[in-house]
Specification:
Blueprint (H helix, E strand, L loop, with lengths): L2 H18 L1 H11 L3 H10 L1 H32 E2 L3 H9 L6 H11 L5 H10 L11 H25 E2 L1 H9 L4 H30 L2 H5 L5 H10 L4 H28 L9 E2 L3 E2 L2 H35 L5 H35 L2 H9 L2 H4 L2 H15 L7 H24 L4 H9 L4 H12 L1 H17 L2 H6 L7 H10 L3 H23 L2 H4 L1
Parallel strand pairs: 1-4
Antiparallel strand pairs: 2-3
Helix pairs in contact: 1-15, 1-16, 2-13, 2-18, 4-8, 4-10, 4-14, 6-8, 8-10, 9-10, 10-13, 12-13, 12-18, 13-18, 14-25, 15-16, 15-19, 15-22, 18-19, 19-22, 20-21, 22-25, 24-25
């Protein structure tokens, strides 16, 4: 690859990175317009409460996800029992349910005429009131059930390949099972657990749907209310800046501590052979995994099926519903396609150059990962009003926000695939007379098509479930399934919210299938 072509590729990558940075640039610009007295007012009236609510929620959800994720991963990775492969599926399936669907379902289930509410009244009568879910503990329950699968996936992978000799050495020294777990296994699991909890906490910081339905004030909900209720974009930008700084600070801390928690073995790691579970252990395993499955997937799925069937029997699923589903499909398809195209020059430039600049481009393209949906939407609104006012309120604004929001998924997936592509293969095509574009089309793209397909599916699925940016930026009259769930839930129209939620779950199943293709290699 000639220097001229490398510079051209670098220029294209720079343009994409600049586009990805639009929300952050304009949030910074808008927040700088706040006067000192406005910042003082925010600090005295809003920030202390929001910081406390957000930090406490993130801490509790991290604890809940740790308990659910690590315990289930331990049993599945270290014990062989009937239905083990099914158990892996059951622990991953909660990822198909968006947090706002979880919140809507559990607020309905815990009403007096809801399934859980009626069960509670039957068991306790009026002696003990039905638990109130509209608080930090309700939000913790919902977000823990929705997010523990991230910890489970990474902890299970780490437990499946382990330094077994250390465990055997600890046992020889007289350590019991609990001591081996807390003094050997848990320290070795710290990097994997830290990575899983990082994903969980970042999702908590950026969550909008669940906290809005549970009326729990965090930064994302306050940003949305400032924009949609008060139309105070500068105050919203100030809150967004604080939230972005919190996310970046957390990422830096997580990376620092994870780097300090690296462990090495003098022997090659080997796959851990699961020990056959005793009858008592089988009962304990399925009791625990069954409880998790019941509340994290079975009850929500049963609720969606029951109310969807009720809506179908009442002929409430009209052509408008299929229109919302079609809108979601169109948005997700276009955003995934554009994101994959935009991601390619960044990933390709990084794999071919391996310089500080290419690494900066790669990391900078991940800005959307730390920007919550309302923050991305605010940045796009500010950009459109300042630079392209004729595009404000149109489909382009929504598409741009979604591409920026989920561009990191496409970049990371393609970068991982391109790392495996030997440069000599590309050189062979050039030696056979292929031009740069011909070589790209006939040699490079066919060899990385699986990685590009995975990137497309990842962006498609996340776009399909995205709520806040779509809610804020959608053109007038252009509703998607997440937007309709949010609207119908606000109006207590359960029969109309359930089919839309069920469609999202069905649409998300392909990503679970892709994740599970490697199950036979791990088990």
């Amino acid at each position: 690859m000639t220097l001229k072509k490398v510079n051209t590729l670098g220029s294209i990558a720079f343009v994409v990175v600049l586009i990805a940075a639009i929300p952050l640039i304009f949030v910074l610009y808008s927040s700088l317009q706040l006067a000192a007295d406005q910042w003082s007012n925010l600090w005295s009236n809003r920030l202390p409460g929001l910081l406390w609510n957000t930090f406490s929620l993130a801490l509790f959800v991290a604890i809940g996800s740790f308990v659910l994720g690590v315990s289930s991963a331990w049993w599945i990775a270290r014990r062989s029992f009937p239905g083990r492969s099914i158990a892996v599926w059951l622990m991953i399936l909660p990822l198909t349910i968006p947090t706002y669907v979880f919140a809507h379902i559990y607020t309905s289930l815990l009403e007096e005429n809801g399934w859980l509410g009626e069960t509670w009244i039957t068991l306790f009568g009026d002696a003990i009131a039905i638990p109130d879910i509209y608080n930090v503990f309700g939000a913790t329950l919902v977000l823990s059930l929705a997010g523990f699968s991230y910890v489970f996936l990474l902890a299970r992978s780490a437990l499946s390949v382990s330094t077994r000799s250390l465990e055997e050495a600890a046992t020889i020294q007289g350590a019991n099972r609990l001591e081996v777990f807390f003094k050997v296994n848990l320290p070795l699991l710290r990097p994997a657990i830290a990575a899983g909890l990082a994903l969980v906490v970042l999702h908590v910081l950026s969550d909008f749907g669940a906290v809005s339905m549970l009326q729990y004030q965090t930064f994302t909900l306050s940003i949305y209310l400032q924009m949609s209720g008060r139309f105070d974009y500068q105050a919203a930008a100030g809150l967004s800046l604080v939230l972005v700084l919190l996310s970046l600070m957390f990422l830096v801390m997580e990376r620092f501590f994870r780097t300090r928690q690296r462990y090495y073995s003098t022997r090659q790691a080997r796959a851990h052979t699961p020990k056959p579970a005793s009858h008592f252990e089988i009962a304990a395993i399925w009791l625990w995994l069954g409880l998790i499955t019941l509340f994290a997937f079975a009850l929500p799925l049963a609720w969606m099926l029951a109310w969807s069937w009720d809506a179908w029997m009442k002929d409430m699923i009209s052509s408008e519903f299929w229109g919302y589903a079609f809108n979601s499909l169109i948005v997700a398809t276009m955003a995934a396609s554009v994101a994959v195209i935009f991601a390619f020059p960044i990933a390709f430039y990084h794999t071919r150059r391996r310089t500080l600049l290419s690494s900066v481009y790669l990391q900078s393209s991940s800005i959307g990962f730390v920007l919550p949906g309302p923050v991305v939407a605010l940045g796009i609104i500010s950009f459109m009003l300042a630079m392209l006012p004729w595009l404000y309120g149109g489909f382009i604004a929504l598409l741009l926000a979604l591409v920026i929001r989920f561009l990191p998924l496409a970049v990371q997936s393609q970068d991982a695939t391109l790392q495996q592509l030997t440069p000599s293969i590309e050189l062979a095509g050039r030696n056979l007379g292929a031009g740069p574009l011909e070589n790209l089309w006939l040699v490079i793209l066919p060899m990385i098509r699986n990685g590009m397909a995975s990137a497309w599916v990842l962006v498609f699925i996340d776009t399909l479930k995205e709520l806040p940016a779509t809610l804020i930026l959608r053109p007038t009259g252009f509703d998607t399934l997440p937007v309709r769930i949010w609207i119908e839930a606000s109006e207590e129209m359960l029969e109309l919210a359930a089919p839309a939620a069920l469609m999202l779950v069905v649409g998300t199943l392909p990503i679970i299938w892709i994740m599970m293709k490697s199950e036979k290699k791990i088990s």
